[in-house]
Amino acid sequence: MCVAIPGEIAELLADGYALVDFRGVKKRVALDLIEHAAVGDFVIVHAGFAINTLNREEALETIEYLKQLSEPSGQL
Amino acid sequence: MEVCGTHTMALFATGIRQGLPEQIRLAAGPGCPVCVTPVESIESAIGLACRKDTVLFCFGDMAKVPGASDTLESARANRGARVKIMYSPIEALEFAQNEPRKDVVLFGVGFETTIPLFASVVQRAAACRMKNLYLLTAFKLIPPALEALLSSGDAGIDGFILPGHVSSIIGEGAYRFMVERYHVPGVIAGFEAVDLLEGILLLLDMIARREPAIKNRYARFVSPLGNQRARDLIASVFAECDSTWRGLGEIRNSGVRLTGDFSRFDAGALIDFEVGAVPEPAGCGCGDVIKGKRTPTECALFKAVCTPAHPIGPCMVSREGACAAYYYYGGR
Fold first, then answer.
1. ipTM score of complex
2. A 26-55 near B (Cβ less than 8 A)
3. For B151-170, what is each residue's pLDDT tens digit?
4. What percent of chain B stands above pLDDT 90?
5. Are strands B83-85 and B54-58 parallel, antiparallel or unpaired?
6. What's residue A72's pLDDT?
7. Residue B204 CA to its chain's centroid (Å)
8. Chain A residues inside the 8 Å CB shell of B233
């Protein structure tokens, strides 16, 4: 499944990795597939890799939508 | 046709499929990697996982697909196969680094969203001169499968809802052949209800006007040219090859194989056992289902024998297979 989730780069790590913040959960993500990653950038992450960068506004919108989906009334 | 399994699920979950008028028929397509991986690939994976001092890493869904008799999961339980479920292929890389005396095999299943990840892992392994990591390639490419459906002449597909994340890698141009050679429109759509409705509306509009085009309505994730860096990574590690799709047969240039110096990572070198041809389970309709020729409800095994708890074919095994979707959402 090519399900990808948006997150914010919290910290750049060694060896082409970054710590990405997914609404409070931080996971190590590989940056091999994207150019110019910086702290504060938003990325979409698939199976431990950032596959694209995202415009900040759109990322925040998507994150808000995912948050709504996970609340009890928004059962999918 | 919606190509991608996640779209099949979203169309059900949003209630759109159930609410569409009868004149619009939605057919689930072959964009479910679990559904299109041939049984022989699973048998190869099981054989490798049973091999001495070998560990096989795979994605969760793949572990539940029946091979000739076992799944990877049941082979682990019954035959001592060493199978590890991974969220990311990076886990296999790290395991191989920490266990140099084990042969670590990655079961490479997925489409263009996933292929660059494995290309990256192979490159990382090469950079640290890793000798114990291998890749069993079973990847598939989406555009050739769509062309195979269209070129059959009897596909009966008037438009495509195109995958979101695959498109973020391959870009819009990869689908242009659909318009130029077959005059069929496509919309790259997101997964929210409004995205799907807009996609369907746009397709209907293009069909009615006989003005097919490829339109991108997932621009927040998909740029017109896709991800060039990811494609360059794929091209540096892999070359296109012919590939067999379960249910569709062999399709030219629809898969990838390791190339050049990276060929040494090919798990094929470890296969010293027979992998015979495995017949499809009697009565299984998955092949027709992924071509959009039959709905799951038109398969005699659906619900009667084939259920998520006891799946016969891959379309029921996969969380995003058409049959699983129909089962959970009561599709007709």
1. 0.90
2. 30, 32-35, 44, 46-49, 51-52, 54-55
3. 987 778 999 999 999 999 99
4. 77
5. parallel
6. 65
7. 27
8. 32-33
The Cα B151–Cα B146 span in angstroms is 9
φ, ψ of residue B162 in degrees (nearest 5): -90, 150
List chain B domain ranges. 35-140+227-270, 286-329
- Best B165, B223, B328, B329 member to test A by mutation, with max A CBs in 10 Å, is B165
Per-residue model confidence (pLDDT) at position B312: 86
Burial A58-72 (b: 16+ CB within 10 A, else e): ebeebbeeeeeeeee
Instruction: Give the whole-number percent of chain B exceeding pLDDT 70.
Output: 100
Confidence of residue B258 (pLDDT cuts 50, 70, 90): very high
Per residue in A26-65, pLDDT tens? 999 999 999 989 999 999 999 999 999 988 887 888 778 7
Domain covering B35-140+227-270, topology: Rossmann fold (3.40.50)
- Under 8 Å CB pairs connecting chains A and B tally to 83
Q: Give the sheet arrangement for strand B214-216, strand by strand.
A: B28-31, B2-4, B160-162, B186-188, B214-216
Q: Are B13 and B331 in contact (CB under 8 A)?
A: no
Token reading at B214: 């490829």
**With contact defined as beta carbons under 8 Å apart, do A32 and A49 qualify?**
yes
Q: Write down the pLDDT at residue A74.
A: 46
Report CB contact under 8 Å: B114, A34: no
**CA B195/CA B193 separation, integer angstroms:** 5
Map out the domains of chain A with their CATH numbers. Answer: 5-74 (2.30.30.140)
